[in-house]
Specification:
Length: 228
């Protein structure tokens, strides 16, 4: 989380606990819910990684900062562009004409995620974490900076995250897409000084929406044969 080491670990613990409960419910209701049920758990682990970044910065341990940052951006750059469209793909009814399209989104997310993440393993100095207004700012070089403007990279990234939920058959998954749009808007207008950290924090909180969908079995109303 953005503000301190204890807050990061507390947020991570809460998200993991909520996601574990949602996963248990998803297993009982319908395994099609499992990918979205695991998203709060993943968001919680990501917050733990940010806690380790804080520990490294506080102790002046650059290797801990790098390892924590690489764990954090593994989720932000590599996992989320794959997992979100994949989760929508799994939920989508078999007869839906859009189902295969979500798989293509996941494949595109894989390509983008690898291009964003792998170079940082090869060039550790591309990772740069600083404290800005009591928050963590993840800056540095990206491979795609040599090909396209950074704003275009972010636009493609956000499209791969937001478009699949917005195109889902299920109303409440589409509403989750609107939740992501609201989060991006808040970060863009008010929290741009540490936008990666804040986006991941707020998106983690946004996964509470997914827990609600599972606990109330919201998709059952629109496709009872799959979720009853």
């Amino acid at each position: 989380m953005c503000f301190s080491e204890p807050v990061s670990f507390a947020a991570g613990s809460a998200l993991i606990a909520g996601g574990a409960f949602a996963s248990w419910k998803a297993w009982k209701i319908s395994k099609k819910y499992m990918p979205i049920a695991l998203m709060p758990v993943m968001a919680g682990i990501q917050q733990f990684m940010e806690g380790y970044v804080w520990m490294g910065l506080s102790g002046g341990d650059s290797s801990m900062v790098w390892l924590g940052a690489m764990g954090f951006i593994f989720f932000s750059w590599l996992l989320w562009p794959i997992w979100i469209p994949f989760s929508v793909y799994v939920l989508e009814p078999p007869e839906s004409r859009r189902k295969n399209m979500f798989l293509y989104f996941a494949l595109a997310g894989t390509a983008l995620g690898l291009a964003l993440y792998i170079p940082h393993l090869l060039y550790p100095d591309w990772v740069n974490v600083t404290i800005n207004r009591d928050s963590l700012a993840y800056e540095g070089t990206m491979l795609l900076d040599y090909l396209i403007p950074r704003w275009l990279t972010y636009a493609i990234y956000m499209f791969l995250l937001i478009a699949p939920p917005l195109m889902s058959t299920y109303l409440h998954i589409r509403l989750f897409g609107l939740t992501l749009i609201a989060i991006v808007s808040v970060v863009y207008f008010f929290l741009v000084y540490a936008y990666i950290s804040f986006f991941c924090l707020l998106a983690g909180i946004g996964t509470l929406h997914l827990i609600y969908i599972i606990l109330r079995n919201k998709c059952c109303r629109e496709c009872p044969t799959l979720f009853s």
